[in-house]
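QA checklist item 7 of 12: single-chain prediction sanity check.
[x] sequence parsed
[x] length recorded as 168
[x] structure emitted
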Amino acid sequence: MKKITGLQVQYFHLCHRKLWLFGSGIGMELSSSFVAEGTLIGETTYARRPKKWRELNLEFLKIDHYDPTENLIREVKKSPKLEHAHVAQVKYYLYALEMRGVTGAGGIIEYPKHRKTTNIDPLTNSDRKEIEGWIAEIERITSLASCPSLVKKGYCRNCAFYDFCFVR
């Protein structure tokens, strides 16, 4: 399996420029208050559940919450505004588990501030084929000689890379 992280899958679905920058070793997330708030929510929500959930380190891939008895991945996110990218990330985690022999897993994405939960069913053959396409595109984008062009999107102003892209 290729060494692609869940964050790279999420970035692929949000912004190819951000994916390329991150893949080139340019990380802006540590200085972002938006990212810091999301991290805090993930670390402090559902404090009574830690015995049920396990962290999985699969070499280059880290899954924060996995329940082996339910065969379930859980992601905690700040806002459902970018839900399509969160769903893709969880599906990629399910794919990574399958590549390691753990089949039939499902997932949930929780948005505690919004009191919303999204369920992710086990992968279908169509999902697997789509994920393999993502992997090929991520590899192509991250191997480009130069940064992809800027495409302004509605969520750019909350991005950790905003200053890099827009402040000159």
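[x] summary fact logged: The chain has one domain: 6-166.
[ ] second reviewer sign-off
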